[in-house]
């Protein structure tokens, strides 16, 4: 691995060990601590291992200097699925530790997360009732799975996110994200959210305005453009590039999850890897905030 990745993993381990508390264990504690588990999961995502069996073979061969004890695949899978709350807590803690956290501009969008293709897989999947059929406009195709709704800063730092049925209206999900975590809004007076045409709604405008939030999105052709709309195209490209980083470099669509817990933690694992890279790049004053090149080999 590269020296930069060694440094990132060490800094991440220290941050988790110092600031976050994992599960309380009865009796003998596990040989792999929660901080080591989360650090190992981030390394897996950054190095592009979508198969846990291949990842652990690589880890046993190359990572013993960093991780004195490494579990076998069943134990790793079980521990990682149980660690979803800690992964979410780590994402928030790292984001709050950057100078980007209190940015008063957010960008919101959703992207497809496919979970199955064949009809037989869909019928047997334990995700039925949560996953559903949806249409991906970006690739002009139907898919069966979920949609990742991501709120981030213009620099790409994830602020909030949700996995939802692809048939759910994007506007409803955004309203739920705002309502669920009201502290995020109150800490940012004059917040501006930039979105696409999928968020056009007078009701959503009123909902956000009542909370002191302004929504900027393209208007329909038969409506007079709002002030500032001419700048939307360049800003909207930022969220597309964040989604491309998640899919192209962090293998979002190759998550391999087959259960609710499995899909949830694997998506969170990739968002955590992106957040960790941004956090470390800002700390190290790297020239490109969202670059993963120093850590992916």
Structure commentary:
The chain is an alpha/beta fold and 297 residues long. The chain has a domain at 102-255: Nucleotidyltransferase, domain 5. It has helices at residues 3-19, 34-47, 52-62, 73-82, 84-96, 119-124, 170-180, 182-186, 202-209, 232-249, 260-283, and strands spanning 105-116, 132-136, 141-152, 158-164, 192-194, 214-216. Strands 1, 2, 3, 4, 5 and 6 form a six-stranded mixed sheet that branches. The protein is globular. The protein starts with a helix and ends in a 14-residue tail after the last helix. The model has no long low-confidence stretch (mean pLDDT 90).
Please provide a brief summary of the model.
This protein has 297 residues and is α/β, with parallel strands linked by helices. The chain has helices at residues 3-19, 34-47, 52-62, 73-82, 84-96, 119-124, 170-180, 182-186, 202-209, 232-249, 260-283; strands at residues 105-116, 132-136, 141-152, 158-164, 192-194, 214-216.
CATH homologous superfamily of the domain at 102-255 - what is it?
Ribonuclease H-like superfamily/Ribonuclease H
CATH class of the domain at 102-255: Alpha Beta
CATH topology (level 3) name of the domain at 102-255: Nucleotidyltransferase, domain 5
Q: How many strands?
A: 6
Shape category: globular
Kindly, what is the distance between the CA atoms of the first and last residues, rounded to a whole number of angstroms?
6 Å
- If you compute it from the alpha carbons, what radius of gyration comes out, rounded to the nearest whole angstrom? 20 Å
Mean pLDDT: 90
Q: Low-confidence parts, pLDDT < 50 over ≥5 residues? A: none
Biggest sheet details: 6 strands, mixed
């Amino acid at each position: 691995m590269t020296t930069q990745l060694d440094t990132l993993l060490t800094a991440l381990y220290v941050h988790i060990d110092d600031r976050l508390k994992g599960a309380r264990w009865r009796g003998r504690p596990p040989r792999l601590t929660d901080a080591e588990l989360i650090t190992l999961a981030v390394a897996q995502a950054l190095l592009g291992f979508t198969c846990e069996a291949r990842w652990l073979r690589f880890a046993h061969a190359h990572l013993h200097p960093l991780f004195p004890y490494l579990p076998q695949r069943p134990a790793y899978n079980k521990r990682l699925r149980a660690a979803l709350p800690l992964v979410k807590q780590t994402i928030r803690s790292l984001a709050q530790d950057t100078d980007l956290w209190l940015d008063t501009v957010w960008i919101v969008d959703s992207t497809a997360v496919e979970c199955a293709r064949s009809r037989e897989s869909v019928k047997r999947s334990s995700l039925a009732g949560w996953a559903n059929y949806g249409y991906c406009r970006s690739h002009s195709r139907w898919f069966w799975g979920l949609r990742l709704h991501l709120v981030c800063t213009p620099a790409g730092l994830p602020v909030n996110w949700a996995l939802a049925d692809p048939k759910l209206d994007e506007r409803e999900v955004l309203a739920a994200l705002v309502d669920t975590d009201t502290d995020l809004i109150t800490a940012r007076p004059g917040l501006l959210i930039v979105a696409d045409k999928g968020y056009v709604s007078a009701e959503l405008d009123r909902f956000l305005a009542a909370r002191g939030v302004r929504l900027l999105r393209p208007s329909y052709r038969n409506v007079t453009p709002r002030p500032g709309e001419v700048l939307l195209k360049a800003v909207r490209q930022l969220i597309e590039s964040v989604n491309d980083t998640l899919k192209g470099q962090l293998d979002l669509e190759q998550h391999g999850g087959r259960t609710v817990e499995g899909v949830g933690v694997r998506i969170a694992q990739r968002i955590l890897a992106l957040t960790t890279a941004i956090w470390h790049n800002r700390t190290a004053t790297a020239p490109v905030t969202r670059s993963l090149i120093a850590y992916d080999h």
